[in-house]
């Protein structure tokens, strides 16, 4: 430099540059899959390399390539796969021909934007290695209905998740022989267990808003039936919250909190502290999805026998089971949709799909596939009960309301900061305001 | 984006400025070389900063799910931000971080600078307090979480000292305070390091004069140290404002878990923008972009104000 710049000018340059660096929402450039041969497909997965599901899929991909000659370029993107794919969906070169993800991500990324392929043809495809059987024949129809919008299926599921109340059958033999069926039975049992251990028997990592929501939602579900919570969520007048039955359901949860049935530290820990505490014998019951056993196994005490029962019955009586799905979806603009469909049909073959159960420890949508021992109780419920989307699909279809309106108030209820009456009043008023703004 | 400021005449820096005569070969040579030197940087800057900013501004005027058609919405996204109570909380949290965490960080940095100025082994200490800045915020936030949870290190220590009912640090009411303390802890080393470097440049004899005059520590700081590091403090204030508004990962990793967002109570505007785009439902890129533009405007205003606040003739020494 010829002589130093005046300090003030340096300052100004630094400041201007620094201001510009705050622009953090840039546009993303993506390499496309244009110009590929049709005997290739690009698959973006929600799993990370090395996860059990990734290993199962990897071996299926290897044999698929060997048998059909179609090369599969797989990228283990992790859980944010749909976020990464979303901005590319309406471009000419969508980088993936096949994606898998949890139902709600597929629905918000593909269905809401009209960027997903109608998967009816996949359900009509014959499964390689199972003569005369189509994909639609082997998947339980209720799962297909679940993942259908306007008559078009948007997902081919390969994993079914369901929430139940988990416990150690080795320790609670009475519960194992006769799980509590009604709410009153359940509360009685909680009372016994609380005095036995001098601490709340219910494990909950309340820093995960979903886990707290499971309790409230299930109470509403059992008293008002499937769909009631979902209907209340989108009620722009808030009138549905005035139903005395709604308040009664919330009062059940209020009682659990007031009577100290949640294990100490539930409202001031970092996930997964409390579920680990539960697995180590520090609490009795954990309301969680079918991933509970595989998540807690490393910290489970010696001889832990995973057993579960559905959330106890309320005023509605009949037992239903809420579920969510993980499966395949294909972008509407995919360059190699045919190859992608082929792979999906190939993977749904009994022998290949059963590894999702035997090796990845999950329930599959094929009723004829054996489930891992620790999920046997869930499977029993699934085979008999009516199923419906987790949280009535609220997290799937109205995530904004769920995050901004329901969760904050619900966390107050679960951590004892708000009474049932406060909860209902606040939920109603914030809901009405929310819908005024987001109509 | 440019920051306008009134130019003032600089005092001569001991060297006469080149005469601005049109014909001076030196000036002509300089003028010829101006564009070749500036152009590459300007091109990069335009492509990577200015265009994305304009794109973001455009997106903020639309309703867009990140895929599919864009629907022009005018200022509707901004109207919604104005009326959304969650955004109000997020904005308030951003300002709280900016002023409260900033104030605490700077107070602590000055204090450490004063203490470390004549301490033996200060280089080592400087490295130690700079350490939190090197480690990823994610790692720190996880560590911080384990310190403060119900059965965490802090509470066990308190119980050992006979506190039977330690506070619920991570409860909804205390969570944001803990986040702020964590942020102070992370940031302090960085600003202390910069301030110390500035203090190191101050000639020793000025302090010797202070001693002879019988000035106490506060007077020394008030009349010697502060005026001589004033412009560096100004730079630090700008840097802090910018990074404070962008803080994201510490809150996200500390208060969120298992792929879930933290409770809305502890959101700042950066988290709000993220949630608008990625909360799990249909992404609202328009609203997220509008939040980004609000943050950009906030930074702009702050930088201009700070520049005015810290404007004074530099002291020569």
Automatic annotation (TrEMBL), chain A:
InterPro entries: Bact_solute-bd_prot1 (IPR050490), SBP (IPR006059). Transmembrane segments: none annotated. SUPFAM superfamilies: Periplasmic binding protein-like II (SSF53850). Keywords: Cell membrane, Lipoprotein, Membrane, Palmitate, Signal. It comes from the Bacteria. Pfam families: SBP_bac_1. Residues 1-29 form the signal peptide. The keyword Secreted does not apply. PANTHER family: ARABINOSE-BINDING PROTEIN-RELATED, POLYGALACTURONAN_RHAMNOGALACTURONAN-BINDING PROTEIN YTCQ. This is Raffinose/stachyose/melibiose transport system substrate-binding protein.
UniProtKB/TrEMBL annotation, chain B:
GO terms for cellular component: plasma membrane. Signal peptide: none annotated. SUPFAM superfamilies: MetI-like (SSF161098). It comes from Streptosporangium album. Residues 1-24 are annotated as: Disordered. This is Raffinose/stachyose/melibiose transport system permease protein. InterPro entries: MetI-like, MetI-like_sf, UgpAE/MalFG_permease. The keyword Glycoprotein does not apply. Keywords: Cell membrane, Membrane, Transmembrane, Transmembrane helix, Transport. It comes from the Bacteria. Pfam families: BPD_transp_1. Belongs to the binding-protein-dependent transport system permease family. The chain crosses the membrane at residues 33-61, 91-116, 128-148, 175-199, 228-255, 285-306. It is found in: Cell membrane. It is a multi-pass membrane protein.
